[in-house]
Design goal:
With 272 residues, the chain is mostly helical. It contains 13 helices and no strands. The chain is extended, with a radius of gyration of 56 Å.
Length: 272
């Protein structure tokens, strides 16, 4: 079997696979945690110390030996294309004047096109904008203000106290006026008295009687307290189905009496 150089990656991968297989074939022995930690703490061995390690693969010819220390990279055509700078396209400028064809010169617009070309007429009640500066007539320009108008045009004068250091304070406003309450107002202002039957607030904690503590619920009470057993929706239960007995039932006189609204809540049209 031919030998391979120490830098062959395939031989390293094969050796690692062989070593893994060997490790898997060996049955694990009970090792303490400290021994396992010491083994994992050891540095990895240098596999390049043994350059004549044999490979499990059979090669027809040896790979070429490396002569240089660095890898030579060949530039592809695509990379060369991407390295080139972008070409600036010169914009094509068009003249503001262009030639009009003979057909466009001899075209005759239709009646519909002439109608659409007309500008929109303003509304019937539309008025043009009023100018900002209106012209004043001669009488307004030569008008003279009266004495009353001059008096009203004067600004209000503030009252300054004689002592400049004293801060002026407004006069206290009258908060109440002398007024005598009527007898009805006196009656309404008197506080309400508690009812003689008022027993006061109930205590938060109260003693429970011995009969209530030793009470045993009857069979009927337990039956009424149990919730109704209903089938789930996926078993075909429909909660909106009304039974035939409920559809043909008639209210009793007592139910009809209870369903009537209170007299104070009835309006005059109902009383009629």
């Amino acid at each position: 079997m031919p030998q391979q150089p120490a830098g062959d990656n395939r031989s390293c991968r094969c050796n690692i696979v062989v070593s893994k297989n060997q490790m898997c074939s060996v049955s694990p022995s009970p090792v303490s945690m400290a021994t396992r930690t010491n083994r994992l703490a050891q540095p990895k061995p240098n596999r390049l110390v043994y350059p004549n390690r044999r490979s499990v693969y059979w090669l027809d010819e040896l790979p070429p030996e490396r002569t240089g220390t660095t890898t030579k990279i060949q530039l592809t055509s695509r990379w060369s294309e991407l390295c080139c700078s972008k070409k600036l396209h010169t914009p094509v400028t068009f003249s503001p004047m262009w030639e009009v064809s003979e057909l466009a010169l001899r075209a005759v617009p239709s009646e519909r096109l002439c109608h659409l070309a007309q500008p929109r007429v303003p509304a019937a009640g539309w008025q043009p904008d009023r100018p900002l500066l209106t012209a004043l007539n001669r009488a307004t320009q030569t008008a003279a203000a009266t004495a009353r108008l001059c008096q009203l045009a004067q600004p209000k004068r503030r009252h300054h106290p004689e002592n400049p250091g004293h801060r002026w304070q407004p006069a206290p406003a009258v908060t109440h006026l002398p007024y005598k309450a009527s007898a009805h107002m006196e009656l309404l202002s008197t506080p309400k008295h508690e009812s003689p039957r008022f027993e006061g607030e109930r205590a938060v904690c109260w003693p429970v009687s011995k009969a209530a503590r030793s009470c045993v619920a009857s069979r009927r009470l337990l039956e009424l307290s149990a919730p109704k057993e209903r089938r789930p929706l996926f078993e075909g239960y429909d909660p909106y189905v009304v039974s035939r007995a409920a559809r043909s039932a008639g209210p009793s006189p007592r139910i009809q009496q209870l369903s009537l609204p209170l007299p104070r809540k009835c309006s005059s049209r109902w009383n009629e």
